Amino acid sequence: MKHPLVRRLGVLAVVGALAAAVAVTAGVAAATKLGGKVTADGSSTVGPYVTAAAEAFQKRNRSVRITVGISGTGGGFERFCKGETDLSNASRPIKASEAAACHDKNISYEGFLVANDGISIVVSKKNTWASCLTTDELKKIWDSGSKVDNWRDVRASFPNVPLKLYGPGTDSGTFDFFTEHINGKAKRSRSDYVASEDDNVLVRGVSGERGGLGYFGYSYYAENTNRLKLLGVNSGGGCVKPSPNRIKTYSYKPLSRPLFVYAKRSSFRRASVQAFIRYMIQNEPVIANKADMVSLTPRQVRKAKYQYNRALQLARG
Amino acid sequence: MSAVATRLRTHDRGARIRGALFVGLLLLSIAIGFLALGTLLIDVLSKGLNWTGATVDRVLLLESPSADPAIAGARPAILATIYLGILVLLFAVPIGVGTAIYLEEYASKDRWYNRLLEVNIQNLAAVPSIVYGILGLAFLVRGIGLGRVLLSGALILTLLVLPTVIIASREAIRAVPDSIRQAAYALGATRWQVVSRQVLPNAVPGMATGSILALSRGLGETAPLLLVGALTYVSFDPTLLGDFTALPIQIYQWIARPQEEFRIPLAAAGIIVLLMILLTLNAFAIWIRNRYQRTW
Amino acid sequence: MTTQDATFARPGPRLRASRRRWGEDVVQGVLALFALISVATTVSIVVALLFPALEFFAEVNPVDYLTGTDWAPLFEPAHFGVLPLIAGSLLVTGVAVLVCAPLGLGAAIFLSEYAGRRLRSYLKPALEVLAGIPTVVYGYFALVYVTPQLQYLGVPAGVFNALSAALVMGVMLIPTVASISEDSMMAVPRELRDGAYALGSTKLHVATRIVVPAAVSGIIASYVLAISRAIGETMIVLIAAGGQPNLTLDPTEAVQTMTAFIGAIAQGDVPTGSIEYKTIFAVGLTLFVLTFAMNIVAVRLVRRWREVYE
């Protein structure tokens, strides 16, 4: 005695199972031609750049599937040196300990320069008193053990406004770079601030808090100029505000830095990976523009092309 | 006599005023809840439907996510949510219904392990959803190395909705009168024959309703998928063993962007799609119940 | 209960006792296996949480963990005091309960004592809709609507604050409180009410002095369940309450709850075996133990009023 509903549900179930089967086979079939998967993970500063490149690239090559994660430069390298990813996005060069880990797993790699960046110090638009901070003041705020929690403690002429800090987490290359160049030692920092690998969280936090202060990659400021106020940094030679030009020429000191994408040599044998990297190098001004990042200097582009050719040779040879 | 009746009938005016005030307060309690709900829906609808460039339209439904909010869509996320729904139903319904049948028809209530089973299911229904995510991370993603793929998400959501499916199925089975069972036994039917031919067909509407409602709660869950899913940029359609982003996660990613164009209209549009999917499921479940439910 | 084993000694048309069919055993075995999946789930949860957490506690002193007031597990030097996270969870939960306890109870009293059957049949499902809205949507609402409104009203709340999240969570929990409280109030026998009416009580009097006290264990059970759900809720606090561990009683500040911490850590792919990875399980275990304990209490309370009246 079949209940009429059972029959209907049965039909639905069969349709559902078929749909699921189609989904699986469709995925399998898609891996043809210039196809396959490219996995990238790492810096949240470089992430938007690689994402913009991936988006444009996938429009032309529909069967390549690129995923981009933002675990942070450190997290990205951990996965990279375990062989889990093809590309590792990094906002600082690979460390000796990370290189050793890769070496242990027989993973050789090539590091490509993809863009330049200046770590930007930002405050909320409601902040009317600050326009420039010295590196000493930055160190006073961010050094480990610092108890500065009011703008007045930063500089006596500042008003009595609570200081709310936002910054990257400990897996971030930005964190490593900033702490090394401001506090003197990488990873040395106070810990009582809103830490997130997701720079969007930081942007939101700083923009909403009158006494907010944060630091992250320039592109996150450039995408949110109507929400954030940029501070200049005085490292002894006067106040310098980051701008694409000053970042490229490294006159924004000490927080200008290059951004990298590291590729596994073994992954580089795949046509899809080669094509993607080649695409990134050839179109880097356009991609940088789209991602609001600072493009490479001509010299840097030449170097990137040289690295690409060398990697290609090593992969083939 | 009339004096007594008068005294009993009319409470003093103070009491009537207090009574009226009290009812007013109660109505206010309910009203606040609905007011909040109404505000939420109006907010979402107005933001998701009006803004040109990120409305619930072809772009949203057919395109992939993008850094440019004007052309960003939620197609991979919508597809992933639909696939998850199908998979969860395929897994959860047989297991849930089977467990319910076991508990109601086969298990003798005086055995300690059966009572433990019941308590166990009650407890599982109350475990926070993120703990299921941790379970998935430990066993599926890392333990057996399945990785952050659609199948892992489906399995974890299955475990999440399973207790609710079991409880709903048990209610449906219990609602079938015992007389039907006894009559079948009296005619010599075996237990499985009684279950499969008498009890189940009559319990199907209740089970279907309960399962679909449980599924709809599961599809709205974000927390377990945060731990088991790939919180990355995914622009291609999901496959069983591929990276995925479900609709709640896509909405969450859009909310997390500081740019207004993402957070407000695009996230709202995504929410509208999600609510539409859930509404359809719930309406379907209620239709089943109204159309097929028998009262004994 | 198995009638197929019955044999009839009387003469007459012989009713053959059915043979034991092996198919029956197979079916029973398969069904029991399905039932075991739920047991396996519980065991897995305990194992998944316990073992990595034990590894964590081998490295971190449990006393420091439970009493420390500084939660900075990823910095150097690392601090593993979980109190700020627990405080964050409790703060949000506390405010949420302040919202859902009276409103839920009010709704329940209305539904059980004042609403007619037809009104109840509309209102109850409508209230359930509140519970069916995905939590990410509530989080969006808290961030995009409630926080600006609070700021407009002059409340010194930042972009991320515990208050918005807690208010929205309270609204989400109203159906939980209302439905369980209403069930327990409906179970109060009519005789109690009728007796009071017969003695000249007003409806207000009956509702507040007779029914509610009689149903009190069910009502408290609903509160405990709401607390448990509030502590276990992730998305609303992840989106709207902030990401900085903060030991405070001020709801206008940003806090991080246990659940938000776990959710935030999951943004990146955490390497297995690292101390980061293990914090997920330590905090997860704390969360599980807290909510589990509350659920046991709630179930006991529900069983108590059920025993009295059913």
Short description:
The complex is a heterotrimer of chains A (317), B (296) and C (310). Chain B is mainly alpha-helical. Chain B has 12 helices and 1 strand, in the order H-H-H-H-H-H-H-H-H-H-E-H-H.
Describe the structure.
Chain A is α/β, with parallel strands linked by helices. Chain A is built from 14 helices and twelve strands. Chain A folds into two domains: 145 residues, 3-Layer(aba) Sandwich (D-Maltodextrin-Binding Protein, domain 2), CATH 3.40.190; 122 residues, D-Maltodextrin-Binding Protein, domain 2 (3-Layer(aba) Sandwich), CATH 3.40.190. Chain A is 45% helix and 20% strand. In chain A, helix 2 crosses helix 13 and helix 12 runs antiparallel to helix 14. About 2% of the residues of chain A have low confidence. Chain B has a single domain, classed as Orthogonal Bundle (MetI-like fold). The N terminus of chain B is likely disordered. Chain C is built from twelve helices and two strands; from the N terminus they run H-H-E-E-H-H-H-H-H-H-H-H-H-H. The relative contact order of chain C is 0.14. At the A-B interface, helix 1, helix 2, strand 2 and helix 8 of A face helix 4, helix 9, strand 1 and helix 12 of B.
Distance between the termini of chain C: 25 Å
Largest interface: B-C, 90 and 90 residues
CATH superfamily of chain C: MetI-like
Largest sheet of chain A: 7 strands, mixed
CATH architecture assignment of the largest domain in chain A: 3-Layer(aba) Sandwich
CATH topology term of the largest domain in chain A: D-Maltodextrin-Binding Protein, domain 2
Please compute the radius of gyration of chain A using only Cα atoms: 23 Å
Number of strands of chain C: 2
Secondary structure category of chain A: alpha/beta
- Residue-averaged pLDDT of chain C, rounded? 85
